[in-house]
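Section 5.1 Outputs to date
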Amino acid sequence: MVSIEQLRAEMVEAEATAKLLGLEYETLNDDELEKFGRSFERQFVLSEKYREVADILNRHRAEILMGCMVATKQFASRFDGERPEAGKFGMVEIRAGFFGMDDWEDEGSVTGGSVQNWIHAGQTNMGGTAGNAVKMGKNAVHVIVAIGDYADDPQIESIQFTIDGKPKPGIYVKRAHKFSDYVTKELDVAFILKYKTTILGKIFQRSTAVSTPFLIGASFIPENILREYVDPASLPGATNDVVLTT
């Protein structure tokens, strides 16, 4: 497992980056850092079949730690690993339900030749307007470090995100998805989504085919919301306040 000394150094790096980005955060104590290191190793490294993905997550560990620091401030509670005690929050893989879908495989057949919506307010459980962004609620912080595709024959050429109303440069994924071992496109710099951040994701592929893009990274969610984890339909909306329409 990564040493406490290494995690302390990475927290210093994360703190400097958070200040540059204007993010509100709170540092972790040594007990929390140990839990972070243990949870990170067991969820994202030791259990990962494809070393390529584990290596990506390791390279972005300081950014994921920064997400944990942002969550500590946002939730006004303490970090407690994958299965937190009441009143604390945990770290889990990014789930489709946190973005209004039942499963990343909801996308199914994607029309080719034109830009199509992916992460948007018209998704399965959102009940909003197709093509509109979704907004992060009070009970979620996400750190996105890569984009994968579960499709047997990946066809997506590129993906674009609009964050807080500002279109970001498109991300060319086809070569990485065709030639990487686990159909994975690593991001140069992680996206960190916090309370009130809006995100719209769109995809383009030349031909109509099944595509199932998914986000790789970590989500930080309060314990009481993680109890709703198995029912993705319960996550959107004001009650659980994980993801909202715009």
